[in-house]
Amino acid sequence: MKKTILITGATSGIGKATAALFAEKEFRLVLCGRREERLADLQMALSNKTDVATLNFDVRDRDAVSQALRTLKAEFSAVDVLINNAGNAHGLDTIQEGSPEDWDAMLDINVKGLLYVAKAIIPTMIERQFGHIINIGSLAGKEVYPKGNVYCASKHAVDAITQGMRMDLNAHGIRVGAINPGLVETEFSEVRFKGDIQRAKTVYQGYAPLKAEDIADIIYFVVSRPYHVNIADLLVLPTAQASSSIVKKES
Ligand code: NDP
Ligand code: 8X3
Question: Is residue 9 within 6 Å of ligand 1 at its C-beta?
Fold first, then answer.
């Protein structure tokens, strides 16, 4: 029987690649993001493979999150798998030079947005005593690097929230885990550097970064384990990366 997966941040990068993969795997999709046109394109592209619903909201807006999820038609509303993926870094600055607007964006999207979406989905999982929540953390949630300050804090928060969710939902038989990637070539650095595409490109030059599809494959592996197996925490790096600051690049 088809299961339902809800993916936040499905309009780009890891979320988009995950949507494309799960469309091939007997899942119906609920795809979320702010860019409506991209959601419409995705729906068009994937609807010949599976049932696709799209939800257009900003995860920062708590009312919009719960309102959007309430509009889901019955066949999509029992979410079996939630991929809490929406998020970005905004800026790469020392703490003394960082912009409070960037800090707000990272904490509001990466931390509070993840909580708002989870809060809206968890009740039906508890009702059904069934479900799987995967939070997309980061290597930046496992260590801190210079100028990473608030982004790293937001991903450390995702790590803590994942552990807390796993404890609190344990009694309800719900699987909870995190996947923490290192460098993945997506629109992530374009967003971090506010549209400076040249600067963004340099982040991924001189080595083989992870691709969004690599993380999508891992998400599918985690989701497709037998239900008694919960992969609680994964750190996934490009082979060229040993830590946030050690990346073997061709000169
Ligand atoms: P992208 O920039 O390619 O994708 C980010 C996605 O998040 C987009 O679909 C965007 O959709 C969505 N999003 C951003 N802000 C909001 C918002 N306020 N409300 C709703 N949706 C939002 O980056 P990635 O695919 O790389 O990032 C996905 C996740 O992976 C993030 O949580 C990121 O922190 C994490 N990650 C990324 C790594 C990397 O190196 N790329 C490494 C480790 C973790 P839209 O703009 O349409 O709303
Ligand atoms: C994204 C990877 O190294 O830019 O989480 O923090 S990094």
Answer: yes
